[in-house]
Specification:
Largest sheet: 4 strands, parallel
Low-confidence stretches: 119-126, 138-153
Order of helices and strands: HEHEHEHHEHH
Number of strands: 4
Oligomer: single chain
Helix content: 25-40%
Strand order of the largest sheet: 2-1-3-4
Distance between the termini: 24 Å
Shape: globular
């Protein structure tokens, strides 16, 4: 079995989903041209187009709002926040909208939400740990799939 880094595995998984489902889109800061802060979306905009790998302004609340809106219309957005500490501006959309849409619409609309939240290593580790809202995320039943340590490239 070939060995791949966690970042390469994430890139391969995202590419697989984009290739097999036309409703999957990725949105976030620098995810398109630059390939994301950790390069997890590197090359995906060139392969799948800028309409499916969408660079957004520096506005996490807007990313979350767009994700909720897209999901209610049947799309499968993957929202990327550059670092776990940046999720706080997204909480309004997650808690007050995404979590309640199914109940508010009596099951007519459901929000299927995926997020890429990164925990940095090296010099950013302490800062990230201090800002990571894990107790809040576990309250909303968000699972932590994996944590990778990254070496400088």
């Amino acid at each position: 079995m070939a060995k791949v880094t966690m970042v390469d595995a994430v890139t391969m998984a995202l590419a697989h989903e984009l290739e097999n489902d036309k409703d999957v889109v990725i949105l976030g800061e620098d995810v398109g041209i630059n390939g994301g802060v950790f390069r997890a979306t590197n090359g995906l905009a060139q392969k799948f187009g800028e309409d499916r790998v969408i660079d957004t302004p520096l506005a996490e609340a807007m990313i979350a709002g767009m994700t909720v809106g897209m999901a209610t219309q049947g799309m499968k957005p993957i929202a990327e926040a550059q670092f776990m500490g940046f999720i706080y501006p997204m909480f309004e959309q997650i808690v007050c909208h995404a979590a309640r849409f199914r109940n508010r619409t009596r099951g007519r609309l459901t929000v299927h939400w995926s997020s890429a939240l990164h925990m940095a290593a090296a010099s950013m580790l302490l800062n990230t740990i201090l800002k990571a809202p894990k107790p809040c995320l576990h309250t909303f039943q968000v699972c932590e799939i994996g944590r990778a340590s990254c070496r400088e490239r």
